[in-house]
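Hey all, quick one. A colleague (J.T.) asked me to put the NAP job into the tracker so the inputs and the structure tokens live in one place instead of scattered across chat threads. No bug as far as I know, just bookkeeping. Sequence used:
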Amino acid sequence: MQKIQMKTPLVEMDGDEMTRILWKQIKDELILPFVDLKTEYYDLGLPERERTKDQVTIDAANANKKYGVAVKCATITPNKQRVEEYNLTEMWKSPNGTIRAVLDGTVFRTPILIDSIKPAVRNWKRPITIARHAYGDVYKSTEYRVPGEGKAELMFTAKDGTRYRQTIYDFECSGVLQGQYNKDTSIRSFAHSCFQYAINTKQDLWFSTKDTISKQYDQTFKLIFEEIYESEYKDEFGKLGIEYFYTLIDDAVARVIRSEGGFIWACKNYDGDVMSDMVSTAFGSLAMMTSVLVSPDGNYEYEAAHGTVTRHYYRYLKGEETSTNPMATIFAWTGALRKRGELDGLSDLRAFADKLEAACIKTLDDGIMTKDLAGLVDDTAKVKAVNSLAFLKAIRDRM
Ligand code: NAP
Ligand code: MG
């Protein structure tokens, strides 16, 4: 068989623990036999980040900018325990945070749906994609306990020395106080990423904030989205027959639950954090959640939404059989290959991505699945729970 050819390399970012094991198996079983794979490889595994003082992460992010499309394996974000476990000289930052900062991107999370697992919300028929503005607000806020009686003020000093000052509250007792911010530049990037992703995936875009209560802060988000939509994207949306729709966050929550799905829901940072957990849980499993980082100038980084599945890795190291679900990681590869195919005009590479996804779905429809999914299926008589490698081989058979 003639292998499928590529033009531009994919930026390949390897990772840690169980997902690193799956990474190699996915390539060996499902990609390399069919595609003459071209990648520029970056090892983002923690030992290599330590060895390069995290330079490898920055290099990988810059390569993502240069070539446009990357596929990333889950990576460890070090905490105190990891610093000891891996003998680190520093608590290196989250690679995802570093890449996101370089690309100035927005993360879109979409569940993979299969017939045998019904969403907790009965009327959801198509996936709901959450776009979270991963910058600022409460995540970068300054806050403190107010010890007792006194006056809290909000003050801004402009570069020319002009001061703006407003009373927040005259405290008659102890309490709490918080200051948060966001930047027009970041909100604009968020808006562009959302509109472009909607066009790319031909889906409606919903955006929600609490602008009736937050008349400056949230209102700014609403106005920036509106202005960019009207001036840059309205025509394209019209041509594609898709819609941009703004509503209050509480109205959005009600509409999302009543909907059939099949749209993108853009959320401010905190709303996106909370709602993406709710939506992914209601759809079934974190192991079936895909994720793509989209920059406002059209660069893409595809990955699974879950982490490195540490608990399974320690069982694997002990020689025990593991049944870790590779679906989201496979879909990271198909997402990246399809995008590469689109950008380079390679229809057979795009078709390969479609076929691999179809083979995955067919395998699950045939009842062959990893243990995490087997537990979610209603009709258990049909199900055969297998380990990760047997699952990959079953997909390959169907390819
Ligand atoms: P996790 O790796 O997502 O795993 C949490 C639990 O969810 C697992 O123990 C497993 O449950 C289940 N699970 C997740 N993915 C699964 C899959 N593909 N197949 C089957 N079960 C799956 O989260 P974590 O344990 O909190 O984090 C582990 C490491 O990942 C941390 O070092 C963290 O920093 C990192 N992380 C990285 C990313 C990223 O790179 N994007 C994201 C999140 C976390 P059971 O054990 O009950 O089977
Ligand atoms: Mg969360």
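Adding what we noticed when we looked at it: Residues 197 and 347 are 20 Å apart (CA to CA). The chain has a mean pLDDT of 95.
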